[in-house]
Amino acid sequence: QRLELVINACKVANADGFINTLPEKYDNSVGERGMLLSGGQKQRVAIARAIVSDPPILLLDEATAALDSASESIVQKALDKAAKNRTTIAIAHRLSTIKNANQIIVMGGGEILEVGDHNSLTANPDGAYSTFVAAQSLAQAKDEEAAQVNSDVVEKNDDLHEDVIPLNRVKSGRSVTSQILEKNNEEKVEKEHHYSMFEVIRRLVKMNRPGWSAYTSGSIAALVTGSAYPIMGILLGRILQHIAARSPTDPDYHSYIRHQIDRDSLWFFIMAIGAALGILIQSWAMHYAGELLTYALRHESFKKLLRSDVEYFDKKENSTGVLTSNLADNAQKVQGLAGISASTIIQSCSTLIVGVAIGIGYNWKLGLVGTACIPLTLSAGITRLKIVVTKDQQNKKSYEDSAEMACEAAGAIRTVASLTREGQALEEYQTLLRTPLRNSIRTSLWSSAIYGLSQGMAFLVIALIFWYGSQLIMNLEIELEDFYVCLMAVVFSSIQAGNVDVSNARGGAARILKLLDTKTEIEIETTSQDGIHLDTVEGHITFEDVHFRYPTRSDVPVLRSLDLEIKPGSYVALVGPSGCGKSTTIQLIERFYDPAYGSVKLDGHELRDLNLNNLRSHMALVSQEPTLYAGTVKYNILMGAVKPH
Question: What is its main location (predicted)?
Fold first, then answer.
């Protein structure tokens, strides 16, 4: 039944003939991005995908602009067949493809200049449509020997004749609508949120509920393992005390030392086995929990990207290269924080608590002095962490441009190779790398100086403990064993605790949380039942006083007071120069964007009030550059079968 659905759609799209000539027919692979098919074949597969679910509304955004003359003729016949018995809105540069349209709407400067069919519009020789027809006829007469007309040439012709199009009205000054649009754009500017370490950990723990049992086991093991370092101080202090307790000239010195060292070495061996088991359990449990969190983060991040509206992807910082790099890299960095680094943090807390308890228990004076110095040793590690995080954020921002350029060059490698621009691409990539390199060199001096001072703080604390401890030893207030126990348990434990490296993990986690917390104007939720659901659609579309500006170009008005009515079952064509708002109308109908002012309605319902997925299930879009996925012909066509047939 599914194959029959696909075959029927392909027959309407004039694709059944060439598909049956393929080695595996409908099970034949189209290759990456459809590279195994020609341009005309890809476009016909895209048309079949668009109509396989029999949508009542068909949107054609310059569907034949990138094709040669032979392919255009075949595809145009397919489009004419697909447009029957449904509301069709077509955008075209080649006016020959829309002669049979029921209604042709000529646009310019975001407004409607003329409305009518082909015959009525050409009857007015001074009209905008007649100007377009004359311009294209002149261009074709000068280039009769050409096999194809490139869409870029058409756009250039449009631009040349844009100035001679008679405009019906001219506006000056700042209108009230203009002020409203600017105010709306100002309201969208939000202050960037800073994610503290505590907030990052709290959010990650909340997201990883399935891994809580593993975290519990790993945390208990980390607490046990963390106590090993202070306990080692006790054993080491005892060994040093035994060595200093007897003179080498004593007759039983060697036997005494051997007996004591053997006993303490046995305790070291037992502690090593316990620590090994603890680290094994700790590492396995935390790694398992970290993998669960990594899966959840990648899943939620990709789901958020799919939910985001088109406006989000229009921003420069959200280019394809940056987003794919973040999706692959950030979750992996967070795994370090949620896995091994999380256990290290717990282990360090255990080390500090047990170390302070042992130090104060052996000698409260030296123990309190060492405890008072803990903020200094911890601040050394925290300062190092902040420097590394800052550098990581700066480098991440600096390298985003080079990552975007590399992704663009790799994605269009055939074009780069055909133009023999490999050297230029490499040179541009190197140029983009030089900026972060210069910034890194410029900031490395002061950051290295601060880093050196922070790390020197630990040695100053050790020097203080040695000085004060020697005073206590000279005053017979402390034994040598107690001194070394306090030194190892308190000071060295705090230094060890301050060396937890979560710099990369925190940066990656902050970027993921920023993505998940991003609010978009149009939130796409595939399972949402919000909004009105339309079981049937007639295809009556109206634009009422619509104003629109693209968020990334808020100073350029695209649509101005657009009033438009498209009747059910009609074939309507939109024509005009580049930038006049033709494609924008398609994007507003699909609700890729919302108008800044005015309303767009379908069958009397404002699009904002309709369930987004239900709305789009009644529409099909065929664009100039069809996107096919790596898979079979049948797989790509069934991607359009959104209805449960």
Answer: membrane
